[in-house]
Amino acid sequence: MAQIDLGRGRGSSNNKPRLVMIIADPGRESTAAMEWALSHAVVEGDDILLLHVNMPNPHNGAAAGPSRSGSGGSSGSPIAVFLGAAGSDASSSSGEFMEAMRAACRARYPRARVHAERVEPATEGREAKAQTILAESQRRGVELLVIGHRRVSTFLGYTFLSASASSRGHDSTAEFLIEHSKCLCVSVQKKGQNAGYLLNTKTHKNFWLLA
């Protein structure tokens, strides 16, 4: 199977750094996406933008810290451990997980310019988050967009999403961005602590990458 062309180092040809956008949310999916991006996609000279869309929370606005356990989580990685320690009391500060993710990026790439921004949804409706991310990526000239993909379980041929996944529209967001982004969009799902990653792009479906 052909490898995914991530366009590493393309910005050096015109002296303009490549901008990599990672979608930041307080959960293990975003942790896994950032872990993959820092380990396999980002290179020296890239700029990193962590973007969070402030979507209305159906659970009274409670902010959840980065998940550190559970099936398919990434609790064993150095980045995930760092995020878990930094975000253990994230409920007291809705922006704490963003600072933890930014610090993890800077720890891995000390010379990189790392920005963390929160934006309000540009539209309303089911695809508001996806459309907002799409607009921001196009406006900023993003060359690589990375988003975590929520695990989907199956039973007897039927597909099930958790209530939180359905309410957040997380998977539909990733699929929308893969289909409509002008830049390369990669959705990342971690398959267990040491089992590797399942990647999806417009041209690669269920691409398996060992850890």
Automatic annotation (TrEMBL):
Span of domain UspA: 20-183
Transmembrane segment boundaries: none
Top-level lineage group: Eukaryota
Record SUPFAM superfamilies: Adenine nucleotide alpha hydrolases-like
InterPro entries: Rossmann-like_a/b/a_fold, UspA
PANTHER family linked: ADENINE NUCLEOTIDE ALPHA HYDROLASES-LIKE SUPERFAMILY PROTEIN (PTHR47867:SF1)
Protein name: UspA domain-containing protein
